[in-house]
Amino acid sequence: MMVRAAVLKAVGRLTVEDFPRPMVGSKALLMRVELCGICGTDIHLYHGRLRVPLPIIPGHEFVGRIEEIDDEARSLEVLGHELSEGDLITVVPGTNAFCGTCYYCRFIPQRPNLCQNRRVLGVNMSCQHPPHLYGGWSEYVYVDAGHWWVYKVPEGMPPEVAALTEPMAVSTRALERAFKPGLPTSGEGFSLGSTVVVQGVGPIGLLCVAAARLMGAGTIIAIDALDHRLRMAERMGADHTIDLKAYRTPEERVAEVERLTGGVGADVVIECAGVPSALPEGIMMTRRGGRFIEIGHFTDPGPIEVRPHIICWKDIDILGCWAYPPAQFRRALKALEMGLEAGLPLRELITDRFPVEKAPEALRYAEQRKGLKIAITP
Amino acid sequence: MMVRAAVLKAVGRLTVEDFPRPMVGSKALLMRVELCGICGTDIHLYHGRLRVPLPIIPGHEFVGRIEEIDDEARSLEVLGHELSEGDLITVVPGTNAFCGTCYYCRFIPQRPNLCQNRRVLGVNMSCQHPPHLYGGWSEYVYVDAGHWWVYKVPEGMPPEVAALTEPMAVSTRALERAFKPGLPTSGEGFSLGSTVVVQGVGPIGLLCVAAARLMGAGTIIAIDALDHRLRMAERMGADHTIDLKAYRTPEERVAEVERLTGGVGADVVIECAGVPSALPEGIMMTRRGGRFIEIGHFTDPGPIEVRPHIICWKDIDILGCWAYPPAQFRRALKALEMGLEAGLPLRELITDRFPVEKAPEALRYAEQRKGLKIAITP
Amino acid sequence: MMVRAAVLKAVGRLTVEDFPRPMVGSKALLMRVELCGICGTDIHLYHGRLRVPLPIIPGHEFVGRIEEIDDEARSLEVLGHELSEGDLITVVPGTNAFCGTCYYCRFIPQRPNLCQNRRVLGVNMSCQHPPHLYGGWSEYVYVDAGHWWVYKVPEGMPPEVAALTEPMAVSTRALERAFKPGLPTSGEGFSLGSTVVVQGVGPIGLLCVAAARLMGAGTIIAIDALDHRLRMAERMGADHTIDLKAYRTPEERVAEVERLTGGVGADVVIECAGVPSALPEGIMMTRRGGRFIEIGHFTDPGPIEVRPHIICWKDIDILGCWAYPPAQFRRALKALEMGLEAGLPLRELITDRFPVEKAPEALRYAEQRKGLKIAITP
Amino acid sequence: MMVRAAVLKAVGRLTVEDFPRPMVGSKALLMRVELCGICGTDIHLYHGRLRVPLPIIPGHEFVGRIEEIDDEARSLEVLGHELSEGDLITVVPGTNAFCGTCYYCRFIPQRPNLCQNRRVLGVNMSCQHPPHLYGGWSEYVYVDAGHWWVYKVPEGMPPEVAALTEPMAVSTRALERAFKPGLPTSGEGFSLGSTVVVQGVGPIGLLCVAAARLMGAGTIIAIDALDHRLRMAERMGADHTIDLKAYRTPEERVAEVERLTGGVGADVVIECAGVPSALPEGIMMTRRGGRFIEIGHFTDPGPIEVRPHIICWKDIDILGCWAYPPAQFRRALKALEMGLEAGLPLRELITDRFPVEKAPEALRYAEQRKGLKIAITP
Description:
The structure is a homotetramer. Chain A is an alpha/beta fold. The two termini of chain A are 15 Å apart. Chain A is globular, with a radius of gyration of 21 Å. In chain A, strands 3, 4, 5, 8, 9, 17 and 18 form a seven-stranded mixed beta sheet that branches. A six-stranded parallel beta sheet of chain A has the order 12-11-10-13-14-16, with helices on both faces. Chain A has a two-stranded antiparallel sheet with strand order 1-2. In chain A, helix 4 (165-177) crosses helix 5 and helix 5 runs parallel beside helix 6 (227-236). Chain A is built from eleven helices and 18 strands. At the A-C interface, helix 2, helix 8, strand 14, strand 15 and helix 9 of A face helix 2, helix 8, strand 14, strand 15 and helix 9 of C.
């Protein structure tokens, strides 16, 4: 039997190929993909903005059902569930976290996201050799359960919501970076009643809005240029939106944030736009003593001018946020469950589906930012 | 014109008296009380368990309308609103926070709740001399707006909810003590998806349940012996209840918390029972590395046995929580607004109202714990 | 009797004038200046880079003896000492901290340094009207002890060390910003054994080196272009120096920091150079997950290019640090005492003294960066 | 060739036995012990106060030289050093940290000390089967370098200081628990200039004094009943001592701490006495808003009465402290280096040495608390 998968052969060259279905080895499983989201990272990979060993099968936001599983792997689910054929699962793509021997694994155990030997399914694992199936834009993904973090999807959660686990892990960690210790916490960083600005409400930004809402933000302000995104942001919990078509300059947008926050600025600003100029603009939107979270630049579109004096004068925290620890999936799944219960329109985040064969079209479509989250589905 | 007020003349002697209506001095205002809650502290005061200079007019959880206000006080509202006659307001009872000269005001500005010169309306301010009206079980309260923290109640919030601002300040601070810094925060202390146990769901415990719900707790477990409290806890957001009538021993209750938390214990336990034995029991319910918050012992019912080894072995944080900074009222009002919006039954927390003349009966009724929050209303 | 003082009449115009000696009012004192340091801020004021209402008497780093004191002020020393004529004192120049009514004083009590109504002796208090003497480049300073923070200098501390209290407050707060919570703290932020880079070892940088040494830094690396500063940095506790004359490019300096830190980068980098390009360079020197403290830009010399991707990828904290709370003087005095005991050459930091009449020459000399700390002394 | 080791055969029965010298397997090494300290835990093990599978070879604080090493293990030193025969090393006794599969390893990566599958050399690893040598009271220890944390001792550090690495790891983590986040940190928890009380200055307490000194404590107060300990505490950096023979009641000792802290109480109190009554006494010594660290109860000598009201009223943090993460050894070695450089009498902490044959006598001697740290040396 053969398995169809999209393969990034070289920068700018995405093809569809057939691979032999692998034997399931010790402590491993084979997952039949239900859905795999397309992420900005995939677009960057296509354009060669991240150095990885090609060819790869892209796709790291996948959910699927266990097709075959080694007996020894049945007990390896992260939360202690027993695994069986047919179970809907999601898998942390960052594998072998922790390597256990790099500087970060040894000395900074709080930050497994910084492991220097991090290998990520769908990103930097070559598909050249068997078992090949190391990415989600495929009919099947091969998961070595001995080392990888497999989570069973909670009862009743539909696959199109479970497929958001990975981006929700990114978004919830961004929010958690915004927590500011300090007792009493009144008015410091993010907590109950805080004002949060989300710059850019693509999927990551929308999930930041949702997470902020679930965590008790008082006022959420979403900024974007696209109407369908702004509308969805409102449904996810944004109290106000700032439309870049109406507020055309950074000065106007900063003034609007000030107006909406009683002249003070936002407690927390989360940069999800991925545009360098969002950094200085977001710093201006942050109130003195507030927090700015930089989550939108997983690749490098270049530099931007920043005034060191403003950082100093504002006494602010500018916090980079890179990926997430594997335990974040637990938090993300819980957030998705809570979001469903609270009536957030999480089911509607995946707006378009393409079969594996149409992966190149799907990528182009995603680049045009017409829908929200685009998914590959066998 | 005379003003009727309940007066604690001596330990165990609560009477009703008439005072002359005071002239409103510079930067002051006279508030007509709408509602004033009865708090456990009032009961302790009545029984002489707190040393304060009697006589006092009890009552520190009050909400009311401005009857008369000095022109200079009109601009002194904390959030910048203009004050006028008829405005519904709530006032931080801890006055003169900060004194600005004690050790804590000088060196620990983060903890204005520890001010050594804290004087509290309705608690330790004698009513012997004019303007007399320094407590809420009265038709009027005299507020020196120059030093006190006056908040205008948000548009549309009914008085019976605004009257919960003070206990909600206590409860939200307890939750904030449970935030645990640490990056990534996954699994540490309280955050999105955490498991929270609330021991004792009287009014403070119920508001802890509500606040935990609003802040994104994953699982909330409420413990009490009274059915009407447990039912209300469920409506406030508790996922599970433990009835002391069914789980009769600490061992059974600890086992039930373990069962509900996958054998691990709770991330956060908040002690709102005010019973010494809740301390060691709550410590047993806290998972290793978790947080236990002690908010229930504003007076001293005596000691209890604790094993230092368990504290050491569990690597836990046991955090005392005393009152709140005056800025907490802002957070509390926001939490109440969010709770109303989320459909929490906050309007039903005040179950019984007594006129000022019946303050002694109200106190006895409150002691019997028949209702939830009991209020005095002129 | 007349009092001689240097007066900044207009941007670029510093004169020497005589003022009438003021009467000492209620809760006030008159201090005879012993020494007043020249700070970078003074140079910026001279060149009009900070908008303040002129004329002013510059000088905010002063130490002196009580010449005359109102009886009611004798008990107002911050630490509880009784004040008498002849006592050596130092005074927090940021007066009326806290105003008690601005957003920060009300809602962010942890950050009195952000008070929106902060008035600073020697910076933004006009000397036009009596009592005129609101700055340290003068024979006398007038201190309203009712509102200001007066500290008695510890027994045995010489005035030339006590004059460093204000810059040491700046430097210790920078170090404290570098503490990173997280349990266990091993390897996170600054703590015992951490690696600290100080960019620019003028007086603030040198005191950062000293504070880092006293707090248990493991490896301290000082960067500067001036030999006498680098030599002093070594005597203050730097383990390594990077001379900009030898390491001429940012790349070379970053490589040297990496070499000295086993290829990882520094746990903490403190920017004390005040040169915009130090920001991106310092970010490159910070290890992933580390902390960069921006303390060197109290004025605005313009923008610099920064890569948002690096902030994101490094998962770092970039923390602005503006001034300090008034309680910081207590910490600073303690640090100076400990530094003296540890044999740090704090007495030698003031390298040159000029009388008030020569204030213009002193300013020019300071600008040439020939000495270390330059002081005005009557 | 045979290896002589002390064996705890059963509770209360310590013998000396000969084992065959093991072959060195893959990624393993054989260490010739230079010194192994006796810890309170060893005494508890002897008396059966900890449930472990006997027989064991006690001893977890060991330092020694590599006798034989597998080639594959040469590159496995934690800090990246190459390992060779003759190298002086110290080893984290808590092996297989992290297991990677328990609740704590998965979800609380910051707390590897809470790993539920923690196996500790010299504590709970049976010596019944080959390679037998799983404890430090022996001529040799067998170290499986593939899983264990091996640190090369820094150049020039004598074995009698390197043997303190394990207790120094305990002590430095206690101090780190005392760091309190909060910006600005002035006056919160432990930082530069803080007041620290150490209850009980046996070896752990003495190393807490040393660590507090190195980290910039302002005032250190040591409490004990034994003169030679109090004298050593002074030499390690204590500013004041409280002799239990002179201050006979808790009230007298609390009053003395208050006197030494200006009536406020200590910022941080570290309980190293291991006596239950030290818990309530230490809580009384802690200032409001301060931190109490419970590090002294690794076994359970029973309960003690505590007043929940005091915890509540003081708004304090009571923090349990269990063991340390394996990365703490790096911090501990650095602290020992810094202590040597600062002239602390670390070489004198080991006061008595006994050969392996005399392990039973050594244990009895240690129980009498005549010396400070007692060591076994082949």
